[in-house]
Amino acid sequence: MLQRLKYIRKTLHFNQSDFAKYLGITQTAYSMIENGNRPLSEKYIKIICLTFNVSEEWLINGRGEMFLSSPHEEEFIRIFSHLIPETQEYLLLMAKELLTTQNKLLCYTVAEKKSSD
């Protein structure tokens, strides 16, 4: 499971410090988990799976696909394929901006939660 945990982090292009922020722990604590010196608790498994749309079955047992499909994914792809190239480019730009904003909000929410604990 630890190799899969590291694989998720690297696939999402996070360093240990940034990934740890999503879990609400320090980089040192996360490093201990990833290196097998500390167990990955059920709480953190749930956070990882919900936050990053990761299959819990894949993370724990290595079965199935790493990421869960969104119920909206097929509809989005269908709509995207009907757009002209210029509109596709614009939609991609907007999606990237939305992702950046979401990541900032998630980091802010984690930091705010930590400060209130």
Automatic annotation (TrEMBL):
Keywords: DNA-binding. InterPro entries: Cro/C1-type_HTH (IPR001387), Lambda_DNA-bd_dom_sf (IPR010982). PROSITE patterns: HTH_CROC1. CDD domains: HTH_XRE. One of its GO terms (molecular function) is DNA binding. Residues 5-59 form the HTH cro/C1-type domain. This is Helix-turn-helix transcriptional regulator. It comes from Clostridium porci. The lineage of its organism: Bacteria, Bacillati, Bacillota, Clostridia, Eubacteriales.
